[in-house]
């Protein structure tokens, strides 16, 4: 294990970046770069997993990552929660019925848009995320959606009723079309956001990259790495300054019946350093991996989770949500958790996650007590879910055309004049 070395230099070894042939520059840019803003949750009952028809657990979500959009003509401004684990884009309607009134304070009114068109052909909008109690009901419209100065014609869900755990503003799902609610309701697919950008010639490759940035910037970081605008998503492109070491490719699993984005990585070896002592916990069976910005925590097999929880003296405080409390003092421990992966070519990758990314404040706990950013996988779950507590330490490049995902250790300090480059077809 080289976990201690990695936490010193924060670099991942092995594999050539050329293993991802789509990383090439071209003269004419063809990408859409947008800031990701980390916002505190306005509803304490937000679901831990936005994946459709998945686990029924829930928890107090500390924050969401949002994208600013403008819908319709004239434009109506909204902030939508980014979700790589679902595929529908939806916003609240005026007067939407919700158990979270603050969540519906911003909304989209299609009757005020001259470019809105009914999409009754798709049936009723009806999507369920983490449990039956997270259903969102409404109808479909077609309208323009503007992000970062780029407009695209989109199908949108307009929510008239939503249950506990409602996200503020709505959801911007960017997963495969196979995961759209209309597929389950009427067996009809429509072009999602990525497909729409591609078909309208805005991007050359159906792909995007994500950099969430660190949760708590260290004193040496620049001011632009503040908590208010911590990250970036680039549709059709990537930022070569935002990772260190190799960008290692992993194959995407073909869209499952649930339509989730899963990687064929196999169960990673988990190692962690706490109090200067190193522990290694291999996986005892193979799992696929789900990367999901709509999930706050990271979910591990029970054996791996138990080893970490025991070392941190973690205590269960929310059985329904699977939430564990630890001392906030661990946030100042210089160690962390290492996730060691290997792809089919034998290339190794180690993503180091420092403890400050895994020790989260929770207003419902006593002073000096924090929430652990890990939880055991629900019974019967056949995949790891690597949520925001993992993704903040990784740079992720999704390519739907080649069904690959590139992973690397995130870098927070680098910059260059030509950092952002478009993806071009392989």
UniProtKB/TrEMBL annotation:
Keyword Methyltransferase: no
Domain Peptidase A1: 65-408
GO molecular function, one term: aspartic-type endopeptidase activity
Active site residues according to the UniProt entry: 83, 292
GO-annotated biological processes: proteolysis
Gene3D superfamilies noted in UniProt: Acid Proteases
Keyword tags: Aspartyl protease, Disulfide bond, Hydrolase, Protease, Signal
Stretch forming the signal peptide: 1-19
Database matches in Pfam families: Asp
Top-rank lineage group of the source organism: Eukaryota
InterPro entries: Aspartic_peptidase_A1, Aspartic_peptidase_AS, PEPTIDASE_A1, Peptidase_aspartic_dom_sf
Disulphide connectivity of cysteines: 328-370
PANTHER family per UniProt: ASPARTIC-TYPE ENDOPEPTIDASE, BETA-SITE APP-CLEAVING ENZYME, ISOFORM A-RELATED
Family: Belongs to the peptidase A1 family.
Record protein name field: Peptidase A1 domain-containing protein
Source organism of the structure: Fonsecaea multimorphosa CBS 102226
Upper taxonomic lineage: Eukaryota, Fungi, Dikarya, Ascomycota, Pezizomycotina
